Amino acid sequence: MSSEILVEARALTRVADGSAQVLLQPTHFALRKGDHVAITGSSGSGKSVFLRTLALLDGATSGEILWRGQPVADAQVPHYRSRVCYLSQRPVLLEGTVEDNLRFPYSLKASRHLLFSLDKVRALLDRAGKGTGFLAKTAGDLSGGEAQVVSLIRTLQLDPDVLLLDEPTAALDPVSAREIEALIQAWFNTDAAQERAFIWVSHDLDQARRMGGSHWTMDAGVMTGPQAQ
Known about the structure:
The protein is α/β, with parallel strands linked by helices. The protein has helices at 47-54, 77-83, 98-103, 118-127, 144-156, 174-188, 205-211, and strands at 5-15, 22-32, 36-40, 62-67, 70-71, 84-87, 162-166, 197-202, 214-219, 222-228. The chain is built from 7 helices and 10 strands. It is globular and about 50 Å long.
């Protein structure tokens, strides 16, 4: 396994806005190429706080985040988010069809140099058990599981380096949850696997064992680990 660090947190902390409540205690963490990490903990333990801070969606109170060994400057945040992608448990889709949603990222500045590939999308849909006709479905008519599949494919088609998965299957039935797991495993278990990494936050210990090569736990804003699977 490569020792190259993709994302590193150094003494990362977060305090709730407008109060003294510490949401994330000083945290040191390094995600290397080829890592697939599971983080578990009770509700409110700080798992999502850590992941959102690592994704640069919420600002850290102190500490720093490094991308490939360098701090992320403000001007580099959009590019960082295009390479280190956060997926929440409740996806946000645009009005229109599934295909409209999948084409949308290519209109953004960080991805304008890329081209939408229908062949790539069809391959991803096939891995999720969806036919080509799925592209014409209206986003507002999708089930929770289908919406999460669209959200994930919208990200995977861009070939990110890191996925930050914040309980992406928590609201899904078992069949839909396995479809999401299969998509992640297919993305990770390729020739490019040693160049990629992901963190999967879960409340499900069995899922953490399936998806994580190492297992960290979170309690009251303190991360502990890793525990080998």
